Amino acid sequence: GAVVSQHPSRVICKSGTSVKIECRSLDFQATTMFWYRQFPKQSLMLMATSNEGSKATYEQGVEKDKFLINHASLTLSTLTVTSAHPEDSSFYICSARAPSRNTEAFFGQGTRLTVV
Amino acid sequence: AQTVTQSQPEMSVQEAETVTLSCTYDTSESDYYLFWYKQPPSRQMILVIRQEAYKQQNATENRFSVNFQKAAKSFSLKISDSQLGDAAMYFCAYRRLGGTASKLTFGTGTRLQVTL
If contacts are CB pairs under 8 Å, which of residues 59-88 in chain A contact chain B? Predict the structure, then answer.
């Protein structure tokens, strides 16, 4: 099946620093990837849609200058949390759909971000 | 906007028994996809089952089956012969037809406990 790999799985950073999370489609090309945020015991909230070669589309209420998304290749999208604060601590998940199997989405393993 | 509602925050089932998780949704579309995803403690999202709205036949995957009632906009998941490994968060999700950029909308989730 299609595989989406996310790295790192866990990261701790200091307040005010930036942290980058990578999302890779390992065996397919993804023109579109999705970034979600999940708070403890809550559902996945879509943050933005990452589009290869163009600007990401952000959901209402998501600060585009704080959550920078780059989708420079057909297999890699990155989410950079800039000037991180403790309230940015959360679980971040990416997903993508393979063009040949467009029905379901495949998810990365997620990244637990802790800002101290 | 589409919404997905899961009215059962928690459910419990004994091993080998059957449990049904509820999901309702709201949409003005006539064709769409519905999904059930499982999120175990590892937090990796796993597709359990999917249903295309244009198909009248309920989807089945081994011990997992759905009761899709299009007119009522209801999409429940039945787990038969429950196993300890079925313990997880279960999310119902909706997606309209479209290309790889079409977004998933998730419900709030149901936490399933499986007891001996």
Answer: none
